[in-house]
Design goal:
alpha+beta, 5-stranded antiparallel sheet, 3 helices, 24% helix, globular, binds adenosine monophosphate, binds zinc ion
Length: 113
Amino acid sequence: MEQCLFCRIVAGEIPAEIVYRDANAVVFKDINPQAPVHLLVIPVRHIARLTDPEAADGKMLSQVFTVIQKMAAEHGLEEGFRAVANCGENGGQTVHHLHFHILGRRCMSWPPG
Ligand code: AMP
Ligand code: ZN
C-alpha cells in the first residue's frame, strides 16, 4: 500500500512522533491533537477500516488492544480515556488505514459531533 499515509509512517518514509512500536502495532502522536493526549494506535498490517479484518487477524488485533492498554498505563490515563475508530465516510474516517484514536487527560462529552 505505497500510497497509504500510515503505511508510509510505519515504513519511516514520513516523519511522525512515534511513541511505541512492535511487530504488530505502531503508536504515534496525532498531528492535530484534540486532547492533551491524542495517540493513534495502528496495526502494522494495512487494513483499510474496522469492517475489513479477516479471521486470521484475530490474534494480531488482540495484541493491538494490549498495546492500547499499555498506552493508557504509560500516558496517565488511569481516570479514563476515549478510544475511537472512525469507519467510512459517515463515520468521519479520513485516513484509510485502521486506527484507534486514544484521547485523554480531559473530560469527554457525549454524543460526539
Ligand atoms: P480519521 O479522521 O479518524 O481518519 O483520523 C485521521 C487522523 O490522522 C486525524 O486525527 C489526523 O489529525 C491524523 N493525521 C493525519 N496525518 C497525520 C500525520 N502525518 N501524522 C500524525 N497524524 C496524522
Ligand atoms: Zn496503510
